[in-house]
Amino acid sequence: MIVIGGTASNSIDDKVAKILGSRSSKVESKLFPDGESYIRIPIEVKGEEVVIIQSTYYPQDKHWMELFFMIETLKDLGAEKVISVIPYLGYARQNRRFKDGEALSLKTVLDLLYRSGSDELITVEPHDYDTVISFFKGKVKIVDPVPTLAKELKKITSNPFVIAPDKGALSRAERMAKELEAPFSFIEKERDRNTGEVRVKYSHISGVENKDVIIVDDIISTGGTMAQASRIAYEKGAKSVIASAAHVLLIGDAKDKLSSAGIREIIGTNTVIPPETVKVVDVSELIAVRI
Ligand code: R5P
């Protein structure tokens, strides 16, 4: 087996190769003067099982295209099997047509992934497990970072209470609550599909007085969802609020939004490269054991 790191592997490739004791290499890449991506696989892969590691965060389109180029090249060069490890699955949230006529982007990228030659997909906590499994025609393995995040959270909370900031995050919150042996509850939110703004539809939260509240989500993007949930937790009497997510993007003024909503700590993973102030747990080992 050979592990190859793409341009957005966040060093997960080095750690995974070390854990597996396998050979490893880095893809060669550059941009042509007109902005197109150049990709080269610098090693012999004929007859090999190849694990290619590439996260598909910003710039998502570039990282996805590079991945398609790498996979097809590997197969052209005679690789026996290609396993794509995509720690952050870009476009995971465009998994439904929320408005008529919208592109089903997740289906398109997963279709292209399969058609490029990827036999297997391993990804960390995608937005919705079911759509990933149904859109990718090969084998899918999903890595759950919750137990690892919970280990860190145990160190910084004493009386935890877990909140899902929307119904979609309920199963994550439930998994986290189980790990922390804590109660959990949820909020129902609505997002304006034109402005992107989030609004609380209904809060089911009670019993958070003097608790260390942990809001659990798959992703923190603009921070709107976390900030709303944090305000509600404080209104209901929470002692402190921590934001926990697999993928911490923090777009634009997200960090300020979170701190003005009283969030004392943000915890995420290395599926993306978050700002220094975020506490990051490494998912390399969790990925390696699934290969
Ligand atoms: C959506 O349902 C997701 O699970 C997240 O709650 C959402 O995408 C977070 O985005 P933002 O940080 O922009 O509110």
Automatic annotation (TrEMBL):
Report the locations given in the UniProt record: Cytoplasm
> Which residue positions does the secretion signal occupy?
none
The record's free-text note on cofactor binding = Binds 2 Mg(2+) ions per subunit.
Q: Which domain of life is it from?
A: Archaea
- Taken from the record, one Pfam family name reads Pribosyltran_N
**Entry binding sites for D-ribose 5-phosphate:** R191, D217, S221, T222, G223, G224, T225
Lineage, broadest ranks: Archaea, Thermoproteota, Thermoprotei, Sulfolobales, Sulfolobaceae
Keywords assigned:
ATP-binding, Cytoplasm, Kinase, Magnesium, Metal-binding, Nucleotide biosynthesis, Nucleotide-binding, Transferase
Which biological processes are named by the entry's GO terms?
Answer: 5-phosphoribose 1-diphosphate biosynthetic process; purine nucleotide biosynthetic process
A GO molecular-function annotation: magnesium ion binding
Protein's UniProt name: Ribose-phosphate pyrophosphokinase
**Active site location:** K189
Q: Which residues bind ATP?
A: D34, G35, E36, R93, Q94
Residues that coordinate or bind Mg(2+) 1: H127
